[in-house]
Every structure is written in structure tokens, then in C-alpha cells.
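Q: Structure for this?
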Amino acid sequence: MSEKKLSRRDFLKAASTALAASGFAALPVGVVRAQDEEINLVLWGFASNRVEWMQNVVDEIWSDMHPNVGFTFEQTPYWDLWPKLTAAFVGGAGIPDMVDIEINQTGQYVREPGNEPFAAMNDLLGEDLDSLSIPSATAPWTVRGNIYGVGNEVNPLLMLYRVDVMEELGVDAEAPVSWEDWIEQVGGPVHDSGTALAEFDRGAGSWRELNNVLNAAGGQFFDGDGNVTVLDDDLAVDILNWQKANVDSGMFLVSDADIWGLMGDSAFVSKYAAPWLQGFMKQNVPDMEGQWRMRHLPKWSPDSPKTSPYGGTGMGITAASENKPESYEFIRVCNITAEGSLLAFRRMNLFPSYTPVWDSEELLRSDDYFGGQIPGQYIAEAAAEMAVVNVDPYWGLFGDIVNRLVMDPVFDADADPRAALEEAIEEFEFSK
Amino acid sequence: MFKSERKSAMGASRVNILSMNTIVLVGVLLCAIPFVYMISASFRREGDLYKLPVTVYPREWTMHNFHTLFDKTEYVRWYGNTIFTASIRTVLGVYLAALAGAAFAKYEFRFKRFFFFLVLATLTLPFHMLLIPLFLLMRDFGWVDNYLAIIVPGMVNAFNIFLMRQYIEAVPGELMDAARIDGASEIGMFHRIILPLVRPALGVVGILTFVWTWNDFLWPLVVLHDDAKYLLSNGIATMDGPYEVETGAIMAGSFLATLPIIIIFILMQRQIIAGLTQGAIRG
Amino acid sequence: MSAHTLTTGENTQPFSLADWWSRNQRKVIPYIFLAPFLLSFAVFTVYPAGVALFLSFQRTRGFQQAEAGGGVVLEYKGWANYERLLTKDKRFREAMINGAEFWLGTLLVQMPLALAVALALNSPNIRFRVLGRLAFFAPYITSAVVVGWIFRFVYDQNFGWMNSALAQLGIEGPAWIRDVNFVMPSLIILGLWTWVGFNSLFFLAGLQNVPDDLKEAARIDGASTIRVFWHITIPFLRPVFVFVVVTGGIGSFSLFSQPYLLLDFPNTGPFDSGLFPLMYLYDMGFLNIRMGYASAIGYILTVVILIITGMQLLLFRLWKV
């Protein structure tokens, strides 16, 4: 055990020696067990593109650095991974070393202080934290100050709009600064022409419509110490009233799983989205190349943050893993090195949370799908002024309750937003 | 006069025949459409799946989904795994259910009613509740990631025992008594008299067990960790990701997965219908 | 068979196992035949059910650290889980009500339709009999994943087959699985598709058992077709009704895969209109990691199913024509 516990300083020293030896000019090498010991690390994930990226990291970067450490990647569908993981934790059998963990699925595992099945990575991360964009890289997996995951993507919400439609209507979509202006100056003419301005998700992820706009307006569901703060100010109620009015007037079009069909049919002409959606647009509506542009998100009020992060998946280490330093080394190579994070950008178009690469030419490439705009520039600008979202171990439970007791009654049955939120909080306290 | 009345009473009037045939035809169509669409979706590109109007044939035929299936996933391996486990479980499951069914149908013994009540009670316990305790048991047995965990726990199925009992009751007791006089052993009679006479029921229990194993999802998901060991249902589901969904490939995979069941069904159609229904009649 | 000969102390008469076996095998063999079932029942049902019963009195408090061999940390709560479920938990009540609604749908829509299909298939002038059987069995063998996916298409508000078809008739269709009033009908229709054909096969067998000469005799006595059906055919179908109704009741309350996949779990339909008891159990046990609460749900559900099954059997006992 003691041999494995190496200080940061040892790490860096070893890194610099190995650096010279391996010939990887920019790639410091972390410490793993001696070369003659064969180790196999098991990682469970749910997203094929992320698993393929990790396999690439192993093939292209890792295998030269640590040839004695091999990998088994197991891929399970999103909603099936968690029961499988739970069963493994409960049984203490077949627990993997690492889990690719989505932000909404972290909380339920780490509710009880001292009995968490994931390892806090604070010590392992050490100074590596300094080179990360915290709101995206670690904040979504940080509970009670313990960091249970590291994510590799910066995902600020940006506003995407149909430039061809705007030009036809003679609308300047770049001008509006606030949401109010956006609805009035852009939404007005669009709505008059018989189209919806945006789509509004009423499917399984409906609560995120509230959460995203709320976070970007500077509001929070939680304070980070286990308290619900969504009703501490009027923000959430105002946002719900505003969304409800826009849904009722047809400004926002209700959607569920059919977003690509609606998008392809030009049933709506703008969408606020995290950068990961851009890849799906290219995949699902490739014919729309050149029709879309991006800009920064309109602000709720002048002192709102520029944007908020949306979504993300990070890699965590299980408490049961017998290979924690090796696992961390892999997480580091994937997420906290130029090679690993740029590979993720190349493969999945994810803007790295590893800040030293932010000015690399590769990230600042223009994108023909968006008429030659430079997505990286927008993302970096937004990331600099992005809200930090407080997570809570009961985050997923609360989202589910908001869906049932706020979104459904408000949007389907004209319930009063404040009363609905009060009921949701009551149910939440009851369910906890 | 009498004659024509009788004829209509037999339900043979033109209107009747027409309406009966219409009911059946509409039913056949309604049942078949989703199935047919699954097959057609296997040959469509992703974009073609969500387009209106709905068409029976793909707008553009493609083998893309099958390439995805065979080149990018371990489909062939999952297929082999599934055939392997489903066959073993089916053969053992049918045999053991027939044994228990024979005991209930053809013998008198103490606690018979109580044991039969146990069989029925098993049907009402929700499997989801037993999932974690069963997983703990598999851990203690060292069966996590082992096909024994798929084959053994569900091998003796209560529904199958129930069905076998109903069927074996129809075997004439005189046949067995005669064999006893000739000195046949009880085990010998089971193999030489009971089993051959209840072949249709064996067919039904066989195909039902096979279908269950083939479509079983939750349990294999929890006990099989190595994706090279996955069964078809779990393997196909890995293509349904939150960031990337290969719907066409899922359809192609499901279509190929259904083929053996359809073939078995067509080959054994008569036996299955006969066996399936026999159990209910005596219920 | 080898003849082992044993001698006991006082009794000098030799004891032959072979003799004993040939005399007693008829008494012993049922236990041997039942042994695999009993063993499997004890190990894979009774033992896990006991663990679940134990868990149902506990609250889960996170996970044991790896050095302790994994496992969950438990806290004894007495009857608290049951009390909360039975007196306070609105979601559980909703789930049980939904189960009951689906069960009614099964009884009032699915059974009559299955019988109608069976009557049609039994008519001597029917064509495509073999095709019909295969088609009616097809939904039963199609994997639930495929069924869920296809029916999401069927019910989609904007692109769905239902609403496209209704639009042809000039009707604007509802939002189906997103409309609180249509979630249950959507599920019942899905249930019809899955089980009508399968159940009609059982009715068909029952119909083929009704003696023709009995019907003939009644008709000669001047009984109408409806009277013959009501007084002769239906009573003969009684065992089939018992079987189909009892299994339908168990199935309705333990419905899981269909709503899970159709509604895209953890979505449970607006106002939990598509939440079923087992989905709630699964949600509590696996997504919220409350094994104890989930086990308590399981036990209450088991008791309810047993009561309903018992009531049904009792009613059928009274119905002796």
C-alpha cells in the first residue's frame, strides 16, 4: 500500500524523468506499478463514442507509456448501467475500477457520508486541478467537497438559430441581449410568419428546461449543503411563467423524442444547446449545413452569468478498486493532457475542460455547418463566465419530482408555478 | 323452412362468413404490422425511420444496419451465447418440469396439496424483489459472470410445472398399471410412457422456455459483466446510447434474433397450439 | 441394480435394498421427481424471499467500504417502510390504482376481444387459419424492446401512426402517452396487441372442446344461437376463463416491461398515469438505492395479488352452471 502512495512531488519527478525517456515532449507520465507487474483495469461506460475514445487513448497514447497496464471496457445502456452498478456495489462483487458516470447519476451513490462507493479524487488530482475549467471538469461530481469524477467537456449553453429564416424575415438575431428582447425582436416576426421560435422539451428531460434557464439566470436548485434553494427568490417562478406563456402562445413548440423530425421540417428556428448537440445536428440533419449560426445565450437580467453548463459525463474511481493510482493515471491521460483531450475533441467534437489547450489552433477551427463560425471561440468565451451549478446527492430525485409535480401540472394543467414548486419541495423532503 | 333456419343457426350465412373472415383478417394485419415494420426498419437508414408518411418499404434499401451489427459489435458471438444457454436451459427445464408435473399428476403422497400451493405461490412473487438477494447468492456461489447464473436459478419454472401437470393428467392410468404388472420401474415408465405421450406439451414448454431465455433482459444484465459473454437482448441494447442510437441496427439485430423462434414455431405449430391449449382446458 | 445386504443387530433377517425399492418405489418416486423443484425452490425462491423480507424492515444507508467486502449499510426501521407505503405514499397508491385500471381493461376489453377472435377462428368457413395463428402468436414472441420502440412511433403526437391515421379521417389526435387521460388507454391498446392473440388460442382450444351434438340438440329444441352460446358454450369455457382471468390478474399488477419501454422510464407518464407497482419498486430499489423500501413494495404487491387471485378463484367456484 505504502509504495503506491506517492506524493505529488514524486509524481512530477517521476513524470519528468519518464518524459525524457519516452520522448513524449508534452506528456508527463504519472506513476503506475512497476513495469513487470501486469495490471488490467476495468471500466464500465454507457456511451459508445466515449468508450471508443478511451480505446483510442489506450492505443495511441497509453500503451507506449504503460505497456503493463491493459484495459477492459464494458458498455451498458444508460438506464441499465446504474442498476447493474448498484447490484455490484451491494454484492461487493465484480466492481469495476472505473465508471464513466453521467452527472445526474452521481448523487444517489454518495448520499451517506462515509459510506460512498466512489473514491474521492481530491488528493490524486492535487495540482492537476489548476489546469481544469472547474464548472465543467469537477463541479458536477463534487459532493461535500469530495470530487468523485473528472469530465472532459466544457458545455456552456449557446443559442443556435436559423440564419436563412432570419435573413428572409429581415431580423437581426445578433442584436438582442436579453431574453425579453430575443422573444420580442426575433420571436415576434418568426411567430407572425407562422413558425415556432424554439422547441420546448416535455419528455423525460423536461425539468432541464427550467434548470438550464434558471442556472443561466444565476439561480440554483440547491445551495450545495443539502438545502433546496429553488424558491429562495422569484427566479424559478418567473421563468416558469415566462415559459408557460410562450408555450401557450405557440412561441415555443412542445416536443418530445421527435426533435430531429421537427428540426428537419423547420418547425422551429432556434434552439439553445450545449456544444455536444452540434455533433448530433451534423449527424441527424446533415442537409441543414450552412443554415444555422450560433451566438451567446440571451441574458435573463444584466447581472446574470453569461451561460450555464449543461450535461456531461466524467470518469470516477470506485472505492473498491485495488488500482486507484493506475486508474487515476488513466483518467489524467484521458482528460488532463493535451493529447487525450484533443483526441476527444477530434473524435467527439467536445471542447476540452483542460485549459492549457484552449488557444490551440485545432480548437479554433471554423465550422462550415455554422457558416464558417468558430465554435471553439464561442465556447471559450462563454466558459470564462459560466455559472457553477451546485450539485446535491438528491439531484436526480429532485429532477424527477420537478418533472412530475412542476412541469406536468404547470404545462399540462395550468397549475400555479409557485404552488407546484412548493408541492415539489414538500414531496422532495418527504422522499429523502 | 326448418332447413334454412338450421343453416343460419350453424353460422354459415354469407354475412356471417364475411364478418368472421373480416375479424380474423383485421386481427392478422394489426398483429403483423409492427412485426413487418421491424423487418422493414432493418433495411432503412436512420433518417428514413422518422419520415412521414410511413411506408411499408424502405425509401432506399440499405444493408448498412447489418454491417454495423456484424462489423462493429459482437453480434455473432452474442447469438452463439444465447443459443448455447437457451438450449441447455430449455432441455433441462423441460425435463425437470415434466418430472415434477408427473409427480403431481400421477402419484399420491403426503403434502401434495401444500407442494402444489408452493408452485403457484412462486408465480406471484415479483422477480424484481428477489433480484438483489439472488445476486448476493450468485456472488456467494461464485457465479457472477458465469452462465450457471443464467441456466440454474430459473431452470425449474412453476408455470411449466403447472402446464405439465395439466397435460400428464390425461395419460391413462391403466397404461401405467399394466406396465407395473409387467415389472416396469417408475423411472422407466416416466421415460417410456409419460414422456412420449406428452410430446406436444414438451414442445410448448420448450418453446416458452426458449422464448423467455431469449428475451430475458434484467437478470443477464445484472449477472453478466463481460460483454463477450452477453446474451442477445443485452447485446442489442448496447446500441441504444444516450448520445448515439443505432435504431436501424437494433431493429436488424432484433429481426435476426426473432428468426429461430419463428422457425421453431412454424415447424412445431400444431404441437404448440395443441399443448398450449390443453393446459388451460383442465385448469 | 446391485443387491446390498444389510444386517441389523437383533433382526437376523437380511434386508435387501432392491426388495425394499421394488416394494416402495411408488411411494418414494414422487419425492425424487419433485426434488429438483423443491431444491431450486428453497435455494432460489425461499432464501431470496427471506432476505427480501429481512430487508423490508431496514433502511439502506449507503455502501460498505471495500475492505468490509462490499454490501450495504442497513438500519433497522421496524414496520416504518410498510407504514409509510400504506398510509402516506401517494406514488405507491397511484401505482396500485393504475394496476387495477389495467386489470379492469384486461377483463372488460381484452377477454371479450380474445373470445371474439377465438369464435371467428373456430368458424368452419374461415380462411388463413394457419397464417392467423402465426400472426396472433407473433406479438407474444417479439422482444419487448422492439415493441416499446415501435409503439413509441405509433403514439408519437406529431409523427405517430395513430395520429396520421386519425388525420386521414379529419380528426386531430391526442398526445397519447403524453396526455394524462390517454396513457392508460395507450397501454391497454398495447396490451391488446400483445395478448389478445395469445389468449384467443386458449379460448380456441376451449371452443373445440364443446360437444357439437349438445349444441345440435339444443337447437332442435328451438334454442336461439345466442341462447346456445350463453347456456352451452360459455359454461364449457369456464376453465379457460379461470386460467385466462387469473393469469391476466397477476400479469396486470406485475406489468413492467411495456410501460417501462413505452414511456421511456424513468418517465412514468404525466401525473404518474403510467406508473406500475413494479416500476416503482425498481425505481426505489435501483435508482434510489432503497432496497428495504423496494422489498416492502414487493411484499405488499404479493399480498394484493394473492388476495385478488383468491377472490377470482372463489367467484369461479360460485359460478357453477
